[in-house]
Amino acid sequence: MANSICQSTPKNPLPELGVSLPDMGDVRDHVSRLLARTVVSTALESLRNDRELAQWTRSGLALHRERSTSRCLFCEQLVSRERLRALEQHFSAQYAALMEDVEDWVAKIDGLIKATEGIRSHVPHRAEIYCDLTSEFRAARSVLDDAVTSVRDALKSMNQALERKRDEPFVPNAGTVKLFDDGGSALEPVNVVIRKHNEMCRDFQGRVERARKNIALDAISRSLDEFVRHKAALDTATAGEERCEREMEALTQQIEQLQREVTEHRRPADELNDDLYHYLGHRELQLRVQGAGYSIVRSGRTAKAVSEGERTAIALLYFLKSLQDKRFDLSNGIVVLDDPVSSLDANALYLASSFIQERTKDAGQVFVLTHSFAFLRRMRDWIRHEKKHEAEFFMVVSTLEGDERASAIHALDPILRDFESEYHYLFACCHRAAKGSDAHDLKRNYNLPNMARRVLEVFLDFRFPQRPSKKRRSLWRQLKQSDFDPVRRRRIISFLNTYSHGGGARDPERDITGLTEAPAVMMDVLDLIRSEDPHHYAGMEIAVGETVG
């Protein structure tokens, strides 16, 4: 291609096609309306079915009017007034107007056919186009030729229909019009090629120079292939040697560092013990250096029993301390904390969250998984104040697939994200289920019994506080203090006792199809809350974003 460009001669710019194909939609509409027209007159049967006789008679009748004679100009016989009246009615003004319109449109369409066939004469010859564009020009010319042929054939079919109409003016729709998309865009591909050709004309010298440069570079590359291969092999070997030297040096430094850390890991132990003191509030539990690791001692002696909360504290603090390891790039690293506050009391939870926030604030990315709503609030508030627009919240939702439990990850419910208590979220879930339309969605209903029980426990503990006693706390005893409908009270407690306890979905004593009653029971729970404290209920609806009924 470069050689052909170098050897080519400049060509002249070409004008774009200034012609266009007929507006076939407009022509088709006019012809269709013309074909649909009929002549309302008392037609003579002999003339209706004989086109040549009708034309001959029509011409003679016109001459008869012009010469004001009552005799036939052909046979010189007297023509009766009745016969003249019948002929006038046959060739009415409507008939004349229709024939005139038909003739006009036949002539117009003949002109359009000639103009359409003449479009090809405006297309430049292939030899006038640069050879680079030959394939594209052929394709564009083929599209245009097809469009011209189709338009011409459609116009001819319209003229044939009009000729049939001229023969049968008393018959509606005597001819049919061929439907065709006028292909008005068929000229554009040719114009695109012409524009490209003209651009090449303007940049002819530049194209020649670029082609010469490419030829020169190609010749150089072929002659230097072997040199390039050897040079690449040398560069690869040199880079490999340097990489090995850097890796060896890095490994040597790591070995020296590890040796120092093995012999000097007392300082991290002291720092961990300080963290434990601030975390637990006493120095009873400490870490003691033992060999290359640590042991846990209580009051100076090896700890025999370490509580779940203490284990959680040690593991968490040790993990957070490990983030300061020089081998870990915290700013570009990913930190994952899986339920770091399990088995911690409220005070320890606040300390744990403070340690986590302080030690992970510079991390590249942090994943925190938790079951604790209080811890969620702490992390949420921290992110809002310290890391705006840098966090996403998700929740794992337990569902029922057939008779198996399953889990799915969803965006965190706005109630959990925006409000300060778990009660808001559970109330919102019960409210949505009660107001929902699909009661047979067992997957959605699976967790509703536990949610409803928790909502009632919180509400009734506030509404009907129980005195401390040795008796087990009873939801039913609290429910009976309410003035709510006894039947609906009974349905609530029966449903909750059945579906919020037990061994799980595989328990043969439980019929999970009963979960279809969950929305109705949720409505009972909401009605009970509303009947006991309407102001509280209305406020909760507003708080969780629902419409107060």
What form results from the Cα inertia axes?
Answer: flat
> Which radius of gyration do the C-alpha atoms yield?
48 Å
The helicity comes to: 55-70%
Strand content: 5-15%
Using DSSP, what is the number of strands? 7
Report the uncertain regions. Answer: 502-508
> Biggest sheet, in brief?
3 strands, antiparallel
Number of helices, where a helix is a run of at least 4 consecutive DSSP H or I residues: 22
Helix/strand order: HHHHHHHHHHHEEEHEHEHEEHHHHHHHH
The side-by-side strand order for the widest beta sheet comes to: 1-2-3
Alpha-beta classification: mainly alpha
> Oligomeric form of this entry?
single chain
* Overall mean pLDDT: 76
Calculate the terminal CA-CA distance, rounded to whole Å.
Answer: 79 Å
Descriptive terms for the model:
three-stranded antiparallel β-sheet, 60% helix, 549 residues, 22 helices, mainly alpha, flat, 7% strand, two-stranded parallel sheet, 7 strands
Structure description:
With 549 residues, the protein is mainly alpha-helical. 60% of the residues lie in helices and 7% in strands. It is built from 22 helices and 7 strands. The chain has helices at residues 2-7, 24-36, 45-48, 51-67, 81-90, 93-118, 134-167, 188-202, 204-223, 225-263, 266-280, 308-322, 346-360, 373-386, 414-418, 422-435, 442-445, 448-463, 475-480, 486-499, 518-532, 534-543, and strands at residues 285-290, 293-298, 301-302, 334-338, 365-369, 394-401, 404-411. It has a 3-stranded antiparallel β-sheet with strand order 1-2-3. α16 (422-435) packs across α21 (518-532). It starts with a helix and ends in a 6-residue tail after the last helix. The relative contact order is 0.05.
